[in-house]
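Trying the structure run again after the queue cleared.
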Amino acid sequence: MLDRGTTSDDDDPPLQKWLARRGKMSALSLAELESCKNYTFQLGRGPQRCSDVPSGLTNSATLLKAEKNSPTKEGLLASAFFASPGDGKGKVRFLTFLHQLGDKKAVVKWDTAVTRGMLYIQLPEDPLHECSRDSLVELLDVAEEFSSRAIVFFSKKRNDMKQLVRTFKFIGFDILPPSCDWIPTSQEYFFMSYEFG
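Done. Tokens:
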């Protein structure tokens, strides 16, 4: 399997192709999509224009908006590790995934960054909704199309940290050592990795 996590190219072809497919379903041109750095997607099956015609998409992420300038990021996503290229890491793009849950009242928000073919998922500081695990599995299903690995990280100060580690291990995540080159240096966050393949 190709390890896209070690590339230092500025562009990430799997992500570009994935974005291009989503761009066909929006009013944005490919050039406009590629010039953006921040994207917001809706997870889950939305209403189809013509339900009996297949869309050609194998997952359920709909592009809601794309922006050239990134809004202020919080937590570790605001660190120098996720700064723009010039540091050999390649282009960093921020993707926000919104997932409206079955009760239609709760929305799970996943703040992520993509660089070197890896998706970094920052868990929110608030306790996760009871359906967040299903939402995360759907996010991983989407991410498999454009990344080789997902890295989830969360604060070590969380009350539910032990439960989160158990849950992520159950899904198939492995604990990353603090010395791993894929992650920023941080004493405050815990990192786990899931390899697609």
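The first strand starts at residue 38 and ends at 43. Worth checking whether this holds up in the mutant runs.
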